[in-house]
Model the fold of this input.
Amino acid sequence: QYQPKPEHKFTFGLWTVGNPGADPFGSAVREAISAPYIVEKLGELGAWGVNFHDNDLIPAEATPEQAKQIKKDFQAALDATGLVVPMATTNLFKDPIFRDGAFTSADARVRAYAIQKTMKAMDLGAEFGAKTYVFWGGREGTEVDAGSRTLDAMGWFREALNFLAEYNISQGYGYKFALEPKPNEPRGDIFLPTVGAALGFIATLDHPEMVGVNPEFAHDTMAGLSFPHALAQAIDAKKLFHVDLNDQKMGRFDQDLRFGSENYKSAFYTVKLLEDSGYQGPRHFDAHALRTEDYDGVWEFAKGCMRTYLILKDKVEQYNADPEIQAALAEYYVKDEALSGLTSKFSPENAQQLKDTSFDLEGIRSKGRGLEKIDQLTAEVLLGVR
Ligand code: GLT
Ligand code: MN
Ligand code: MN
Done:
């Protein structure tokens, strides 16, 4: 039980388990490990796939011959383990050239270079069969608005995504793009900070059908927002193209904690939304082991992400099948066929009938909603006493 299998579609980025544990105040605590070794270990642990930024796989300074060899070794590891590469992305944040943005830099040369780099990274991802392309605009933002580019930035961002959407079509790659919102870090304020902001922006693109979102648990949680609410909005908009699972304490720096390590209830509702909605995409863990750990800790971390997901999935099934919870929910969802018939679609007749309807306002007002009970029952499922 709780043994991860490929059918669960768990994925990790090369940058997650491969994270050497450096932070702004301290250097790396773990030796770098190779991509083929990561693939081998993830395969052993029962993961389904692995994702990468262009430079996670091919270092920026690699020669064409080196790049060729790296790709060969990586492919051999994929073949040996059966791991797939469902998603790829571009590193548009490490190089100092992107210090003031990539697609939204006020320097036209930087914007053009960012598009060039992304096209090449899309080629690389496509070579390994990736079908989702993530755009995390970590450097797209400001600390000070002194350059007054905030409005222009929206236009440049749109221009870049429109260009790359056409590139995707012209190459026949069949990528779905997934924009990953984040409120801050590494920039003081990142553009398109929330899922809702990204969804609003997508509607202004030339190919809105190609573009969805990649919400991340920690990114909403950092800002004190509800991740399950953001996730629900993405699902409702049919725009959940990918998901980044991890954990985070509210109001802290970007912690990228092991999934389900901090906010049990939000993690539960996250899994519930993913499972109940029939989301078919990868369950991607965008997190890394604590800086306190060596590689034993890293593999414990990776196992823990997947195991906790499966435990919570089990809890969701238990919750959905619990007669007492279901009875409480049936009371919570008050049904009235006649009224729902009136409000489900506007017609002048329905509007008139609704205006003429009298409600038992006192009766409705005076009755509590029963959420204390449902919440306690949920807590007891999670705490393992039901
Ligand atoms: C980086 C960031 C993540 C993004 C990755 C994709 S890189 O680690 O913190 O949230 O998903 O670019
Ligand atoms: Mn993150
Ligand atoms: Mn992420």
About this structure: The chain has a mean pLDDT of 98. Residues 15, 53, 89, 134, 136, 180, 216, 244, 286 surround 5-thio-alpha-D-glucopyranose (ligand 1) (CB under 6 Å). The longest strand covers residues 49-53.
